[in-house]
Design goal:
With 697 residues, this protein is of the alpha+beta class. The chain is 26% helix and 16% strand. Keywords: Heme, Hydrogen peroxide, Iron, Metal-binding, Oxidoreductase, Peroxidase.
Length: 697
C-alpha cells in the first residue's frame, strides 16, 4: 500500500485518536454533538443547524432499500372509532363523531434487526398507526415502550449505530447483547429508563395483539378556540398485556422465527380481530411545569397515578394486506403527518423526527411521490402544485404555480374562517445555543421508579436479562461501567447483576432515588385480564387416549374463544379409547410448548399407558411448567406430572379437581366436571404462573 493510500485510510478510520477532532463532511471541526441548535434551552430546533442536518441526513440514507430501523415488520388494515366527541380538547375531525369509522393501517415491528431477523428477539417494538382521516393522513408513530433511549434527535444516529450489528462482522442479528450498545449505554445515562424496559419482559411480547403502544412524545391537542392541551397517547390491548419469558422467546426463534407475524395474520384470517383502546393523558398548558420532570423529555413518563389515562376510542384490525411488499413494506409513516387539532411540542427528539422521517422516505421509496402509493394515499382530496419527480403516477393539467390567473387562481388558499391546519401560536425567544435544559438532567429517578414498581418475579427477570446481555459483552471495562450506572438506579439491582457477570460489586452510589412506585407499570397487575380468546391450547393425545375427555374439554375451551389443537406422535388420526379414529391437528415432533399458551394431558381408561409419557410429550410438559404456563392433567395423564416430580399438590382421595399455581388436575376417568373446566379456563386467563417451585431436573 502506498503512503498516500495509507494516509487516506487513516483519515477515514474513526477510532484513531491521532486523527484529530470530530468534523463535518466538509472538514469543519465540531466541538459539540450531543445537542441540536435551538432557541433557548427548551425552544424549537433551528434548521440552520447544518451539523445536525448533515448528521441525520447521512444516517437516513445509509440503507437501500430496507428501513434502517424497524425493518422487520407486519401490518394490517382496520378502523378507528371514538367513544364520544373530544371537541373540548381537539378539533380533529376523526375524534368528534362516534358514528364515524376512520380507516387505518397499522405496522408493528422490531427495531434492531434486518428484515430477515426473528420476531421474538429482545427489542423495542414499533406500533405505528396511519389514520386515513377526512382532513388528511394522521400518523401516530409510536413504540411498545412509553420512553425512548435519547433526549435529543441529534443522538439518534449514535444510538442506532451502537445498537445495530457490530460493524466488523455484522453480529449479532436482531439482538442488543453486544459491546457497542452497552458501551453507549454506560456512557449515556439518559438511556437507563428505556434500558430498564428493554431488560423487562415488556421487550418480548407474547403477541402484537397483547402489546401496549405509546406515542412516546408529549404532543398537543388544539380545540376550535385555539386552546392547547398537552397530550400523551396510549394503546391498550383488549386481550390484556402479556409477554414471553426469555427462555421460551429464544427457543421460539428457532421453532418459528415468524411467531408474532404469523400470530397476527392467522388470527385476522380466523375472524378474531385484534382490538386496542386509545387513551390519552391530558395536561393543561398552565400545568406544564408542575411535575418533577420535563414534559418535553422523551425519556420520561407521566405516571398514571398522577394523570390517569382517559379512554377516547377503539382500534380494530380486520383485514390482512394483499401484498406484503406493496403495502406493509412500502407504507411510509411520518411524525409530522398531523391534522388540524393535533400539534407538536418543542421536544427535541420529536423535532428531529419531524425532519428525519420525510428525508428517509425520499431515499427508501425513490423520490417525493411515495404518497401516491396506494397504502399511503390519503382519502382526503389532494390539490397542490407539486409536480413530476421519480415515480409520478398522476397526470396533471394546467398551471403549477401560485399565485396565478391563467388557472383561475387554483388551487386557492382556504378562507381565513375555513377549516385548515394552523400551528398553535406560542411565544418563542432565546439565544441560539447548543445546551440541554437542566430539567432534562435527572436520568435515574424514573428508572428507579420502574424497578421499584416491579413484582419480585419481574425484578428477577430483569436481573437475568442484564446478566445475559452483559455476559455477552467482551469488554470488562464496559461491564463495570454499566454496573456503576445501575448502582445509581438501585444498589441491590447493581450487586445482583455484578455477581452474575463476574465484576466487583459497586459501592453505593450516594443519594439513590427512592421514588413512589407506579403499579400500572407492572405486568403482575395485568395478569388475569383479557380472557382466553385466541389463546392456543395443545392437547397431547395418542392411541388409547380418552376421546370423551378431549372432546368435552375442547368444546368448553373453544366456546370460550380459545384455539385448541390435538397433537399426537404422528399426523393423520389417533385411535381413541372408544375405538374410533379422531383427527390429529399437528404431529407432536414438529411442535413445541413455546408455540402454545397452555397444555392438556388427557388420561387413558383402564390404566392404559399414557401417550404423553413419550419423551417428546414429557419435554413439552416440562417446558410448559418451567415457563409458568397453565397445565391440565386428567386421570392417568397425571402420571406425566409424577414422572417430572412436579412439586405441587396433586389430586388425592375424594378431591376430584385440584388447582395449584396454574396446574389443574382431575382424578376420575371418563367425563370431566364443570369445576375442572372452569379452573383450567381461569388458569389460562392468568396467562402465566411465575412463582412455581422449580423442577428437580
Amino acid at each position: 500500500m502506498t503512503d498516500s493510500k495509507q494516509e487516506q485510510r487513516k483519515t477515514h478510520f474513526a477510532d484513531d485518536p491521532a486523527a484529530g477532532p470530530l468534523t463535518t463532511d466538509q472538514g469543519v471541526v465540531v466541538d459539540h454533538t450531543d445537542d441540536s441548535l435551538r432557541v433557548g434551552e427548551r425552544g424549537p430546533t433551528l434548521m440552520e443547524d447544518f451539523h445536525f442536518r448533515e448528521k441525520i441526513t447521512r444516517f437516513d440514507h445509509e440503507r437501500i432499500p430496507e428501513r434502517v430501523v424497524h425493518a422487520r415488520g407486519a401490518g394490517a388494515y382496520g378502523y378507528f372509532e371514538p367513544y364520544a366527541s373530544c371537541a373540548e380538547f381537539t378539533r380533529a375531525a376523526f375524534l368528534q363523531d362516534p358514528g364515524v369509522r376512520t380507516p387505518v393501517f397499522v405496522r408493528f415491528s422490531t427495531v434492531q434487526g434486518p428484515r430477515g431477523s426473528a420476531d421474538t428477539v429482545r427489542d423495542v417494538r414499533g406500533f405505528a398507526t396511519k389514520f386515513f382521516t377526512s382532513e388528511g393522513n394522521y400518523d401516530l408513530v409510536g413504540n411498545n415502550f412509553p420512553v425512548f433511549f435519547i433526549q435529543d434527535g441529534i443522538k439518534f444516529p449514535d444510538f442506532v449505530h451502537a445498537v445495530k450489528m457490530e460493524p466488523h462482522n455484522e453480529i449479532p442479528t436482531g439482538a442488543s447483547a453486544h459491546d457497542t450498545l452497552w458501551d453507549f449505554v454506560s456512557l449515556q445515562p439518559e438511556t437507563l429508563h428505556t434500558i430498564m424496559w428493554l431488560m423487562s419482559d415488556r421487550a418480548i411480547p407474547r403477541s402484537y395483539r397483547m402489546m401496549q403502544g405509546f406515542g412516546v412524545h408529549t404532543f398537543r391537542f388544539v380545540n376550535a378556540r385555539g386552546r392547547g392541551t398537552f397530550v400523551k397517547f396510549h394503546w391498550k390491548p383488549k386481550l390484556g398485556v402479556h409477554s414471553l419469558v426469555w427462555d421460551e422467546a429464544q427457543e421460539a426463534q428457532g421453532r418459528d422465527p415468524d411467531f408474532n407475524r404469523r400470530d397476527l395474520w392467522d388470527t385476522i384470517e380466523a375472524g378474531e380481530y385484534p382490538e386496542w383502546e386509545l387513551g390519552v393523558q391530558l395536561v393543561p398548558e398552565e400545568d406544564e411545569h408542575r411535575f418533577d420532570f420535563d414534559l418535553l423529555d422523551a425519556t420520561k413518563i407521566i405516571p398514571e397515578e398522577l394523570v390517569p389515562v382517559r379512554p377516547i376510542g377503539r382500534l380494530v384490525l380486520d383485514r390482512n394486506p394483499d401484498n406484503f411488499f406493496a403495502e406493509t413494506e412500502q407504507v411510509a409513516f411520518h411524525t409530522a403527518n398531523v391534522v388540524p387539532g393535533i400539534d407538536f411540542t418543542n421536544d427535541p427528539l420529536l423535532q428531529a423526527r419531524n425532519f428525519s422521517y420525510l428525508d428517509t422516505q425520499l431515499i427508501r421509496l425513490g423520490g417525493p411521490n411515495f404518497s401516491q402509493i396506494p397504502v399511503n394515499r390519503p382519502v382526503a382530496p389532494v390539490r397542490n402544485n407539486q409536480r413530476d419527480g421519480y415515480h409520478q403516477s398522476s397526470i396533471h393539467h394546467g398551471t403549477s404555480y401560485s399565485p396565478n390567473s391563467l388557472g383561475g387562481g387554483c388551487p386557492a388558499l382556504a378562507d381565513p374562517d375555513a377549516p385548515a391546519f394552523r400551528h398553535l401560536m406560542e411565544r418563542v425567544d432565546g439565544h441560539k445555543i447548543r445546551k440541554r435544559s437542566p430539567s432534562f438532567e435527572d436520568h435515574y429517578t424514573q428508572p428507579a421508579m420502574f424497578w421499584h414498581s416491579m413484582s419480585d418475579w419481574e425484578q428477577q427477570h430483569i436481573v437475568n436479562a442484564f446478566r445475559f446481555e452483559l455476559g455477552k459483552v467482551n469488554s470488562m471495562e464496559v461491564r463495570v461501567r454499566t454496573v456503576e450506572q445501575l448502582a445509581r438506579v438501585d444498589h441491590t439491582l447493581a450487586v445482583s447483576v455484578a455477581e452474575g457477570i463476574g465484576v466487583p460489586a459497586p459501592a453505593p452510589a450516594g443519594q439513590v432515588p427512592q421514588p413512589t412506585p407506579s403499579p400500572a407499570l407492572s405486568l403482575e397487575n395485568n395478569r388475569g385480564t383479557g380472557g382466553i380468546r385466541t389463546r392456543r391450547i395443545a392437547v397431547l393425545a395418542g392411541d388409547g387416549a380418552d376421546a370423551e375427555q378431549i372432546d368435552t374439554l375442547k368444546a368448553s375451551l373453544t366456546t370460550a374463544g380459545a384455539v385448541v389443537e390435538v397433537l399426537a406422535p404422528h399426523d393423520g388420526v389417533f385411535t381413541g379409547s372408544d375405538g374410533a379414529d379422531h383427527p390429529v391437528d399437528r404431529a407432536l415432533p414438529t411442535m413445541a410448548s413455546v408455540l402454545y399458551d397452555a397444555v392438556v394431558v388427557p388420561g387413558a381408561p383402564g390404566g392404559a399407558p399414557v401417550p404423553g409419557l413419550q419423551p417428546a410429550a414429557v419435554r413439552f410438559v416440562r417446558d410448559a411448567y418451567r415457563h409458568g404456563k397453565p397445565i391440565a392433567a386428567l386421570g392417568t395423564g397425571i402420571e406425566v406430572l409424577t414422572l417430572l416430580e412436579v412439586p405441587l399438590l396433586l389430586a388425592t382421595g375424594q378431591q376430584e379437581t385440584v388447582s395449584d399455581q396454574g396446574v389443574v388436575t382431575h382424578t376420575p376417568a371418563g367425563a370431566i366436571s364443570a369445576d375442572f373446566a372452569h379452573a383450567f379456563t381461569e388458569a389460562i386467563a392468568f396467562h402465566r404462573h411465575p412463582n412455581r417451585p422449580p423442577l428437580r431436573f
